[in-house]
Amino acid sequence: MEKGNLKIFGSGSSGGGDFNKITISGEGTITDDLTCQVFKVYGTGVAMGDVEAGSLDIYGTIDLQGNVKSEILKVYGTMSANNDVYGNAMKIRGSLDVGGNISGEEINLKGGLSVKGDCEVEHFLSDGTFDIRGLLNAEKVNIELKYGKSFVIEMGGEEIQVKRKSSFLGLNKQNGSLEADTIEGDHIYVEYTKAEVIRGKKVEIGPGCEIGLVEYNEQFHCAKDASVKKQIKI
Which PANTHER family match (predicted)? Predict the structure, then answer.
């Protein structure tokens, strides 16, 4: 049996259900759990239940009050999720605010990300800004500090690289920075980072860093204009 489509133009509301495609172009409210192949928001939307979608594309503003699961998640506008978010491939160009945990395969961040809980993905790629109040755990972490201050309580991964991004044509560096309590991984390189503790096999502290303690197994290097209060080979 072919699934129907749900389109809300102007102002309207609908119950939940199982749909092929959902489009909100005006102001729309969906009052119960929903599943769909495609969910696109161009206007302002509210989904009061859980959302499960093949792809979720946000060009306007959406408030999601339940749990969210989407194979492909693209945020060009503003998305607020009260609970947990799962996305296999997540591209954030606008703003995403998560009240619970966020998990999936990859986050590609060029906008803003705020997470009250943990962030667990295979690859975390960012040249935007983020505020993660729990653990950021990824196999590969690649952060380009472009502007503003990013914050995470604890960061873990196999390869962690934090660099300040060059501006147009590489003429000068941007002014982004990172603050963390603990950073732990196998291969770690950080710039313009303030952290209490960094632990790793191979640790390189680049320019502009203020680090309390570095614990390393194999290699350690510190730039001249970086500050490391104490380093221990373990």
Answer: HYPOTHETICAL CYTOSOLIC PROTEIN (PTHR35024), POLYMER-FORMING CYTOSKELETAL PROTEIN (PTHR35024:SF4)
Query: Measured in whole angstroms, how far is the alpha carbon of residue 191 from the centre of its chain?
Result: 20
Q: What angle do CA 63, 69, 70 make, to 5 degrees?
A: 95
Task: Say how far apart CA 123 and CA 166 lie, in whole Å.
Answer: 22
Cα(39)–Cα(33) distance, integer angstroms: 13
Note the pLDDT tens digit of each residue in 135-144: 999 999 999 9
Centroid of chain to Cα 126 = 8
By three-state DSSP, how is residue 11 classified? strand
> Which of 73-82, 107-116, 165-174 is the least confident region?
165-174
Q: Please write the tens of the pLDDT for every residue from 103-135.
A: 999 999 999 999 999 999 999 999 999 999 999
Under a CB-based contact definition with an 8 Å cutoff, are residues 183 and 167 in contact?
no
Neighbouring residues of 118: CB distance < 8 A, sequence distance ≥ 6? 101, 102, 103, 132, 134, 135, 136, 137
| Residue 213 DSSP SS3 | strand
CA distances from 158 to 63, 75, 78, 138, 155 (A): 34, 27, 31, 8, 11
213, 197 contact by CB (below 8 A): yes
Burial 158-173 (b: 16+ CB within 10 A, else e): eebbbbbbeeeeeeeb
Helix (H) or strand (E) holding 227: strand 227-233
User: Phi/psi class of residue 70: alpha, beta or left (left: φ > 0; alpha: ψ in -120 to 50)?
Assistant: beta
